[in-house]
Amino acid sequence: MLTQFMAAFLAICLPLIGYLFLLPFLFVLVLTYLNRNSKQMLVNQFGLQAQVYLGGLGIVLHETSHLLTALLFHHKIIDYRLLVLPWHLNANSTEQALGYVKHAATKRFWPTMGNLFIGIAPIFGCTAAMYLSTYLLLPVTYQRLETFVTNPSGDALQWLLGSFSLSSLPLLLIWLALITNITLGGFDLSPADFKNSATGVLTTLLLVLVISGLIAILGLSDTAAKLIEHAGLMIVSWLIMSVIISLLLNGLLRVLRLVH
């Protein structure tokens, strides 16, 4: 009986930690490095304002994700700015915040646990925005991507790539501009974000263990594991796309730097 419980418990606990926390966190480390480097090249080549023009939507989504999650976990909002407009930027400073959310919390369990989710909220907020953009602008691509993630294969990948056709070129260009903007401005977690998240790890881990135990006791581990795996794969698939776009943008900026 104990062996069955432990097997069911681990079938929930490990995917939950892996798919919804560890893998996204690793991808965001890569995205943070790439996009910080890209934004530094943008500043060097075109000035501080270029970060806002090419990543403004991502910055707004980033800060909005922090703000809404802080409210969800009952944090006191001290001050916030979702975006600093280009004409308010100091051209002589590369350290000026392009947006911020200042918040405070008590030492209670729920607000403390919220520190983790507030810190990593832009991962899920920007991913959700990418989902919505694709669903509205390229619904065929969205459906085929879901199929590919559920049953990955060479044929499914070819079918997915076939959804990008010249007939939808205007919408495709708008979609690509939105995705690039979201990726460049939204997936860059600051040192404060990482530090804030660390303070909520232990309480979140405790909650994960409790939830995993309850699901195992109720005999719902198989169903829950499938749902977690599907959600995790969808998140990771979009993060992979963000990494690809970030690499292409970083490479383009390096070429422009060489040319100039």
Write a brief structural summary.
This protein is mainly alpha-helical and 260 residues long. It has nine helices and two strands; from the N terminus they run H-H-E-E-H-H-H-H-H-H-H.
Main attributes?
mainly alpha; 260 residues; two-stranded antiparallel ribbon
Radius of gyration from the alpha-carbon trace, in angstroms: 20 Å
Shape designation:
globular
Question: Helix/strand-derived class?
Answer: mainly alpha
Taken in chain order, the helices and strands follow as HHEEHHHHHHH
Give the termini distance in whole angstroms.
Answer: 69 Å
Helix content: over 70%
Number of domains: 1
Strand order of the largest sheet: 1-2
Largest sheet: 2 strands, antiparallel
> Quick one: how many beta strands?
2
Mean pLDDT score, rounded?
84
Task: Report the β-strand fraction as a percent range.
Answer: under 5%
**Number of contiguous helices:** 9
Instruction: Indicate the low-confidence ranges by residue numbers.
Output: none
Transmembrane segments: 6-34, 116-138, 158-179, 200-220, 232-253
Keywords: Membrane, Transmembrane, Transmembrane helix
Q: What would your notes on this structure say?
A:
This protein has 260 residues and is mostly helical. It has one domain (2-259). It has helices at 2-46, 49-72, 109-137, 139-150, 154-161, 169-186, 191-198, 201-218, 221-259; strands at residues 76-81, 100-104. The protein has a two-stranded antiparallel sheet with strand order 1-2. The longest helix is centred in the N-terminal third of the chain and has 45 residues, at 2-46. The mean pLDDT is 84.
